[in-house]
Amino acid sequence: MDCPSCGHLNREGARFCAECATALIEAVTCPSCGTINPPATKYCDGCGQALADAAAPIAATDPRTHPPEHLAEKIRAGRAALEGERKQVTVLFADVMGSMELAEQSDPEEWRRIMDRFFSILCAGVHRFEGTVDKFTGDGIMALFGAPVAHEDHARRACYAALHLHKELAAYAAELRAQGLSFSVRMGLNSGEVVVGAIGEDLGMEYTAIGHTVGLAQRMEQLAAADRVYLSEHTARLAEGHFALTDLGEVTIKGASRPLRVRELTGVGAARGPLDVSRARGFSRFVGRDEELRMLEQAFTGEGQVIGIVGEAGVGKSRLCHEFAERTRAKGTPVYHLAGQAHAKSVPLLPLLQLLRTYFEITEQDSDRTARERIAGKLLLLDKSFDDDLPLMFDFLAVPDPSRPPPRMDPEARQRQLLGLMKRLNHAQSARQPGVTLVEDLHWLDPASEVFLANQVEAVQGTQSLVVLNFRPEYHAPWMSRSYYRQIALAPLGLRGDQANAR
């Protein structure tokens, strides 16, 4: 009998895995008192509740694991091609520490409500970054990133999901602590290879783990301290530069032939893309794009323009934009940068919010009050008329002023006001000090950010600023027909240029 968690082959009749102690026989949980009963039990041995009805749903797919419709469509579209295919994935385990003791301290119905909300938070967080919930483990979940929907950045998505869950669960734990319940969650991640099996009509996925891919992720979870996220060396290598990691040294892990290095995930790093990681390591010499660079420099002539740089992945779009941005900053011209990110395509307005926080010089350490002071200081310095817009901007950046709430309005009216505010802000900033706005990887922008990008493109008219965009050939937008839009197509360089400009 194969263990569903670590893949270990156990003897027939075994009740628990000899390698990782995962239960191998599906038990029946009493819906009345929460007691776990052996399979095929007719009545609960804890309270006498009939279990015939309780046992039936266990084999059914839990509705919380069902992905959102946009993600379900991707799974259905590639279902036939996926079966039997090897996939690189990152596995995430999360569970409640000391769940049995906590369950004993709580009323059964109340504990069920606590865990239901816990599972809902976990599933929503996994789906947010296009992961899938593979199974519930009693007091936690196992999730996959990179299968059945393939993602080159599966490790980064898993790390972003873990950080998001850490934040959401910390808020939930604070609520429970106020009720006298010490609720803590730990998580573990590992990356490796799996073979995808059949994907059913309910989108449930069967797979066979290669090596210790799944088992090592569970080991990372079991090692993790309360409210901590531990990563294996495999995942840390894929996430390098994009996240803040603390090296915990080498740890002897059961089932591993040698001690393994473990790292703790503590936050987001400085890198936002491969180019940022390359910058930290040191760039090679920039050659072969002098003509394109000259075209960009000549475009910033005091008349509002939009330049699109289009090319296949890896031809050097980001490196060209980086060199142009560095030369522009060296001349004292401000450069405002935002980028679409693959993991955030389902997260509305994330690139725009990051741009505004950078523009207003708001840091993660700033309190809401400090953030409001920075926003107000910059806007009112540009134009006193922005005073009436402060409540809306505070609310948009999630630092609302309790004494000045924004006016109530429907979502469409709010969006119109925000678009008008952003257009006026662009004009006011350009009048004081013209600059360059650099928007990268448009093909990864979410729909809401694309609306604001179109607004930004229109706002260029009548200013002295320049907007530079880069994207892949499959990306198209209505504003590309504007008279003030020009496009630069990047062809692959020759061998010499490719070697010199390699990231």
Summarize the helices and strands and which ones pair or pack:
Blueprint: E1 28-29, E2 36-37, H1 52-55, H2 69-77, H3 79-82, E3 86-96, H4 99-105, H5 108-128, E4 132-136, E5 140-145, H6 154-178, E6 185-199, E7 205-209, H7 213-223, E8 229-232, H8 233-239, E9 243-251, E10 260-268, H9 274-281, H10 290-299, E11 305-310, H11 317-330, E12 335-339, H12 350-359, H13 368-382, H14 390-396, H15 411-432, E13 436-440, H16 447-459, E14 466-471, E15 485-489, H17 495-500
Parallel strand pairs: 6-8, 11-14, 11-15, 12-13, 13-14
Antiparallel strand pairs: 1-2, 3-5, 3-6, 4-5, 6-7, 8-10, 9-10
Helix pairs in contact: 5-6, 10-11, 15-16
Fill in the keyword field for this structure:
single chain, 503 residues, alpha/beta, 8-stranded mixed sheet, 5-stranded parallel sheet, 17 helices, 15 strands, 19% strand, globular, disordered C terminus
Give the N-terminus to C-terminus distance in angstroms: 47 Å
- Tell me, rounded to a whole number, the average pLDDT: 83
Structural class: alpha/beta
Biggest sheet record: 8 strands, mixed
Shape: globular
How many beta-strand runs?
15
Number of helices: 17
Low-confidence stretches: 53-61, 495-503
% residues in beta strands: 15-25%
Which radius of gyration do the C-alpha atoms yield?
Answer: 26 Å
Portion in helices = 25-40%
